[in-house]
Specification:
Layout (H helix, E strand, L loop, with lengths): L4 E4 L7 H12 L4 E3 L6 E5 L3 H11 L8 E3 L3 H7 E2 L3 H10 L4 E7 L13 E5 L4 H10 L3 E2 L14 H8 L5 E4 L10 E4 L6 E4 L5 H7 L4 E2 L2 H5 L21 E6 L3 H17 L4 E5 L13 E4 L6 H17 L4 E5 L7 H11 L4 E3 L1
Parallel strand pairs: 1-9, 2-9, 4-7, 6-10, 11-12, 13-16, 13-17, 14-15, 14-16
Antiparallel strand pairs: 2-3, 3-8, 4-8, 5-6, 6-7, 10-11
The structure holds threonylcarbamoyladenylate and magnesium ion.
Length: about 350
Amino acid sequence: MIKTKIVQINRDNPDEYSLKEVVKGLRVGKLIAFPTETVYGIGTNAYNKDSIGRIFQIKKRPTFDPIIVHILNNYQLEKVASNIPEEAWKLAERFWPGPLTLVLKRHPDIPANVSANLNTIAVRIPKHNIASLLLELSKVPIAAPSANLFARPSSTTAKHVLDDLNGLIDYVIDGGSCQIGIESTVVDLTKEKPVILRPGGINFDDLKKVLPLISVGPKYIINNDGKDISSSPGMLLKHYSPKANLYIVRSNLLESIIKFIKADALKNIENGKKIGIMISNNEIKYFKDFNAETVTLGSETNLNEIAHNLFECIRKLDSLGVDIIYTKIFSKRGLGLAVWDRMFRASEGKVIDV
Ligand code: TXA
Ligand code: MG
């Protein structure tokens, strides 16, 4: 165990001075958790093979799951990627800085273990004052996976990071809660046609306006049957998992969803199980006097709010020690596709049609 130092920084006006020690550490291979607009990352110098190796170890991340490299600007893109296609510049112009990650050919200067020995590299320019300042002062690209233990929900606050990684990393920069709360969209530009490997902060429809041929990759997102595991490395079905069993209840009728959750929960309560319910503002009233821990994701129609609260709600229910979590399906439009993907994987495919 090492002592993890917490550095408080104001997101709106981060000052260089408080980052001095962290920047020095980052350059020589220390591990630093920092906020981005999506989720917190655990970052290290992307040229440092050893500290990248340590990230895999402490996260218990399988070595076949490649890591995203964060850069400051388009100039740095040419230092981490080679043979950059026209599509990349188009997407960069429209969506960077922002929650979009591009998979390109890896530049030979970037150590292979960042990319799990693939010849590609995933890269993005984050849109967050603290992340930008860290990149600017460090003068190196930062390799950073999400700051959680492998297969656990991503961290959207410094507290979440500490819950998973206290004593395992050198610093946590506490810059408050991440604005979006769900990870970046990953787009592969190394294939014949552009493919979305992971839905995220940038919507499919917006990407399609720039690249009309783009499609959504992982099959299970489309089939919903829980049987397909995609060909994308790291896109495992079990992911973002709470300690509890999560069930997604699906129906066109809200009434049926509420009825099912209550009946099924009662059976489980009789068997000594502790129940958690994760639902929108509009539905919380149905569970007012119910023997369960309830958390609200936000307003049904505000998918930004639901995305923002999702990991926080899952972690909250876990900390309350529930055995079973019930949630319902939300719209898959816009950011809803990413919400659905995370919920589906957190449930390990446990969708109940009623
Ligand atoms: O928003 C985000 O993307 C956050 C913040 C910290 O930037 N990062 C993040 O990293 O979510 P991580 O490691 O949790 O997820 C990275 C995803 C994985 O699904 C991984 O398989 C994929 O990106 N990925 C990374 N490099 C890749 C590559 N070379 N080819 C294909 N997929 C890659
Ligand atoms: Mg992750």
